[in-house]
Amino acid sequence: MKRYGLKTTLLVAAALLAACASGATSDTPNTVREQQFAPGPALYVARDADSTMYLFGTLHLRRPGAPWGGARAQAGIAEAEEIWTEMPISPETDAQIQQLAMQYGRAASDRPLSSYLSADENARLAAALQALGVPPNAFDGLRPWLAAVTLALLPSVRAGFDPAAGADRQIDAFGDANGKHMRAFETAEQQLGMLAGFSDDVQRQMLIESIDEAAKGSQQIERMAAAWETGDLATLEQMVVTDMRAEYPAVYEVLLADRNDAWVTVLRQELAGSGVDFIAVGAGHMLGEDGLIAQLRAAGYTVERVE
Fold first, then answer.
1. pTM (predicted TM-score)
2. Pairing between strand 51-58 and 43-47?
3. How many other CB atoms sit within 10 Å of the CB of residue 130?
4. Would you place residue 14 in the very low, low, confident or very high pLDDT band (cuts 50, 70, 90)?
5. What is the pLDDT of residues 93-135, one digit of tens each?
6. Domain count, the chain
7. Residue 182 pairs with which residues in a beta bridge?
8. How far apart are CA 172 and CA 144, in angstroms?
9. Strand locations in 220-274, DSSP E?
């Protein structure tokens, strides 16, 4: 099995920290067993008598220039009264992420990064950094989780992917410019705390995975971006959800399943009210048996893909 799950998660987590630098099988969940749609990022809609909710899975790292979504998504966000993102997006949040990243990601004086790795692994880390134009000792003062997500981000940035071009930021900019009520599911501290809260063993695993993948450059983000841009949900679900759940269940529970459970409670409360909401969160949160789409359907809501 190709190991996509954790690497993809690291890329998503790396996008969150970027302010510091700035085919389906028969048992595939029903989120991808649907009619064919023209290429474009997937958009869903849930409706009841007095409310409409658009659900749009975003990509946090993108190359600048392309629209963030198709015509139907653009119309949906224009119709919306409230726009939801994972966390607030603002210069203040970016500054907070920088501060929190070092607060949670600085290594203890008696536990440098090198102490988590063998001699061979330290040599491979130094070689990976040097190949990326980074001094070999640049990560000495970091905890493994922060070193891992930073290392995961660097090849993507070198290939032209920019967190500032992420769909979330473009959606937030539209909301700010058009007087929308901007809301968020989490705070920056909650998101950074999840990454920093992983055990030493999981953090070490994250770092070794990043070292192993660094030599492959931007292959992973290129494939993920192509799947997102064409609405290829089968590939996205395999990369972001299925492999992570099978290979890294503890990471899956913290970064996807638990958060989806919390968010779907909020979505059901919104649907119980009235008005139009536009939900823009990472595409992985929409997919799979624990995803927002499947959970809303299981709760009795009709959720249709419209683009």
1. 0.88
2. antiparallel
3. 12
4. low
5. 988 988 998 899 999 999 999 999 999 999 999 999 999 999 9
6. 1
7. 83
8. 31
9. none
